[in-house]
Amino acid sequence: MTGAFYDGLAGTYDLMFPDWDASMARQAAQLSEFIPLGARVLDCACGIGTQAIGLAQCGYSVVGSDLSPKAASRAVAEAFARGVSLPAFAADMRALPFVDDSFDVVLAADNAVPHLLAADDVLAALREMRRVLRPGGRLILSTRDYDTIRRERPLSTPPSVGPGRVVWFQLWHWDGDRYELEMFQLHEADSWRVVVSKARYWAITRHELTELAARAGFGYVEWLLHAYYQPLMVAPNG
Length: 238
Ligand SMILES: C[S@@+](CC[C@H](N)C(=O)[O-])C[C@H]1O[C@@H](n2cnc3c(N)ncnc32)[C@H](O)[C@@H]1O
Known about the structure:
The protein has about 240 residues and is an alpha/beta fold.
């Protein structure tokens, strides 16, 4: 379900941002505070490249992978169009196709990990991220603020308007601590064209994710609530 959701979104994902290139630059500037100069970075949920391309433009050596083959191949093309190199592959973060100790930093930004709906799946992903990190490397991931969201249990997101007059909004259908997200895109053409797609999330709290990171072998986990547009988890590997 998740791969098909993002394959379907790959062509229009950038239209969620008022200015995608400006968002890429801003997010890369914020994330680079936590990434040493010259680091080899794996973005294991690169999507169409919002963080990976921005970081490559900052001079990092970045590799991307993502569950959605269409998103990963668009990331390669968008990087090429901007004059930077971004090798990117289709891969599940629970089974990363990289050898042990390959990267200085592993990144999974913008709420990718909560697509995994069971603790065992999150644990498998965190173990894989740790396996491909060199000792002393660093895991960086961001999620929605589910500590707040679990209390408030919103039923929708406010509408936003992207370039080309695309209106976006989401309806959230709760089932315990999980929810189904129904994404609406309204494209203004000769008449309005409406696209609806669905994905599922676990509204995982920072405490739950920290415990799973500890079980995966990360000895120390820090959460930064104001360094990025989502809460950011930073965990050194050893
Ligand atoms: C909200 S998008 C963010 C994408 C990208 N980081 C960005 O901000 O443009 C979440 C991404 O996580 C990816 N994803 C979800 N589950 C995954 C999994 N099990 N393995 C790898 N990627 C996954 C999706 O395909 C999607 O591209």
